[in-house]
Amino acid sequence: MKKIIFVANNVHHYKLFKLVKNKLYGNYFVDVLYTYKCKEKNSIIPENDVLISINEIRYAYFDREITYFRKRFGLSPKPKSEVFSDIIGYKNYFKKLLKEEKPDLIIGELCSGLPDLLLYEESCLLKIPFVSIRQSKVSNGIVFCNPLLDKPYVNDKKISELGFAVNYVNKIREKIIKPKYMVKTSKKFKFFDFSKVKTLYDYLTLYRELGTSNKKYFQYAFIMHIHRFFNKLKIIGNKNTFSDIPVNNSQKYLVYPLHYEPESSSSIRGYPFDDQLFLIEFIAKNLPSNYTLLVKEHLGNQGYRSYKDYLKIKTFFNVKLISPNTNVDQLFGLVSCVITINSRMGWEGLIKGLPVISLGRSFWDSLSFIYKIESYQGLSEALYSLDALVSDHKINEEELFKFICEYTSAEYKGNLVLKSDSIFSESNINALSTSIVDFVDNGVIG
């Protein structure tokens, strides 16, 4: 009988994976781990620091507990010795775990922090498949993909019909509709939201269940929810935080959609463009004089981003910070180009026929008619020739339709949308369990 290990890096997926585990008994041996608990205590740092790789140092900078929360709350950096001790602690734990348990498959989320990145590396060394389970970006199902790339494993046995792709593209070109995974996060702010109380309760429950291991992470996460509430109040109280869409016929516009932070998309898959404030400043300083950059906040990120970040963006004279509630169809009708790390607006923009400058790794970055940039030097060159890039742009419809058909062939039934009404329902747990069995049995990843 095959053995599966589920790994979660947030309380919602930990709770979900435990429910799925109960359904899979009889089919597989199953275990569920919370990655921030998986650390060997009192880890000894090697005398030769070279044993800590450059990748591992970068992973530490992507981590919420080590970097994001401390920076967000204005705290001093975690000492280098403690960071290295964390790295060794996680590595030793996962080495021992995988060698003893010998799982056939690891299923988790997209890697977003130090522990899951180290687990991914260790699984690769031992040739144990590590698969991310993810909400589909095209329909209401789920996909299984590489934990670093967000690109699903395509099932060549069930390629979707062309008609679906044509209909999907036509609908987006007619009107942008919020995808399922953004319905909850884009809801208007409430002074009292019971779901927030429930989330705090889940954190406390998990903290009691897992003991005091890495208690700083739980404390920071708890404080962040409170901090976000007051930050939202500050934004609401400052009516001039965001500008309206400008109308100036003598100007051309491009849009940069701010990405959710902290998240795998903006940090791990966005590197070296993961510092969005620096990126916006760089674009502003390299933008042709006949262009203005419109920066649109992410609907689900309100409250997480510091108000000081907004004030910083507003200091650039050729940049306008526009509301997260801006009508995207209207915005696409105004701008000449989309510049993004890997946002949803990049996907929608390329379908609408706009040139898209892609800075990160995304599920759609293999398309030949996007402008893939991998360095700041490359970005500077693209901005310098922006008028030519816009005028010469052509979309390959046939390639787009084929890509959508291949993507949807990788979809399975299930719902992973955090905070959605049905995520913990019996029907969804059954659907997810069945999809996992089908994915494993189909042998898509070999």
**Through-space gap between termini:** 17 Å
User: Which residues form runs of ≥5 with pLDDT under 50?
Assistant: none
Task: Work out the helicity level.
Answer: 40-55%
Spatial ordering of strands, largest sheet: 2-1-3-4-5-12
In this structure, how is the largest beta sheet organized? 6 strands, mixed
Rg computed from alpha carbons, rounded to a whole number of angstroms: 22 Å
Overall mean pLDDT score? 86
DSSP helical segment count: 16
Backbone shape: globular
Percentage beta strand? 5-15%
Describe the structure.
With 446 residues, the chain is of the alpha/beta class. The mean pLDDT is 86. It is globular and about 65 Å long. It is built from 16 helices and 12 strands.
Summarize the structure.
This protein is an alpha/beta fold and 446 residues long.
Notable features of this structure?
446 residues; alpha/beta; six-stranded mixed sheet; 16 helices
List the SSEs and their pairings.
Blueprint: E1 3-8, H1 11-24, E2 29-34, H2 54-62, H3 64-72, H4 80-101, E3 105-108, H5 114-125, E4 130-135, E5 142-145, H6 162-174, H7 194-210, H8 215-237, E6 252-257, H9 276-285, E7 291-296, H10 307-313, E8 319-322, H11 328-334, E9 337-340, H12 344-351, E10 356-358, E11 371-372, H13 376-384, H14 386-391, H15 397-409, E12 411-412, H16 426-442
Parallel strand pairs: 1-2, 1-3, 3-4, 6-7, 6-9, 7-8, 9-10, 10-11
Antiparallel strand pairs: 4-5, 5-12
